[in-house]
Amino acid sequence: SLQSLDFDHLFRMFFEPVTTPCGHTFCKECLERCLDHRPNCPLCKQSLREYLKAGRYSPTVLLQDIMLATFPTQLAERRELHQAEMAELSNLTKNIPIFVCTMSFPGIACPLHVFEPRYRLMIRRCQETGTRRFGMCIYENGKSFADYGCMLEIRQVELLADGRSLVDTVGWRRFRVLSRGHRDGYHTADIEYLEDRKVAGEELQELQCLHDSTYCLAQRFCEHGDLTSRHILMQHGPLPEKEEDIQALADGPTWCWWLISILPLDPSYQLNLFSCTSLRARLTQLQRILAALLQQPP
């Protein structure tokens, strides 16, 4: 409803005016935020499900022309205000939007079903700013969300007639939460990105050997695991190929994150592996886990 918007938005000049099939005109953003809560016209309550599913809002050209001719200064100020808001929302370290839901990992697909109004707004803003990125964290007791999370990149959004959406995302970078906040109902955070510690010389050679031997265990696990493991593989696809340079990515080899995402691990243990910036330590833990699982009877 219109009550979901603050008065500051309600009494601003029309910006990107659109007219619904039932003949009522609103700012594009105001209409979208109302439809986040209910797929009906905010004034006459007529169903706008098909209009909402199309996801296309054609501007009301006549009203735009009238405002441009009559209120050029005020319209320019309104446009500058909108651009400032978009610039603020585009920052990828300050006040980034946080989706509190599940564990996600760098380079790994994370499909989402978005239905809450606050997250509909969040996803739309990520698209409109062009960043197409937001943070994902799990809930943690005593906190609104965990201290570590993964930035996700939106690859595709499928809109449904009632405003829900199926969002195809993939993990981008790990981060650590520096401070927490809120914006229009969803969580936000100031963050810093994590990066694995680089090694060289003999230490790198040893790390390469550990990496290769752990990858061999992962292959054995995928080939000879129990029925549950094989079912998981059918859902998540095959084990990713090894990277040529194991230190090329800030978050380390993608196959490690794929393996962590499918292994039967408690989320708190996954988070512990996730926050670790030593590839050696992560591989050592994975080697122990795989060895234990491979020793279990089918």
TrEMBL record:
Record field: transmembrane: none
GO molecular function: ubiquitin protein ligase activity; zinc ion binding
InterPro entries the UniProt entry points to: Lon_prtase_N, Lon_prtase_N_sf, PUA-like_sf, Znf_RING, Znf_RING/FYVE/PHD, Znf_RING_CS
All residue ranges annotated as the Lon N-terminal domain in the record: 86-294
Domain RING-type: start-end pairs: 18-45
Organism superkingdom: Eukaryota
Keyword line: Metal-binding, Zinc, Zinc-finger
Protein's UniProt name: LONF1 protein
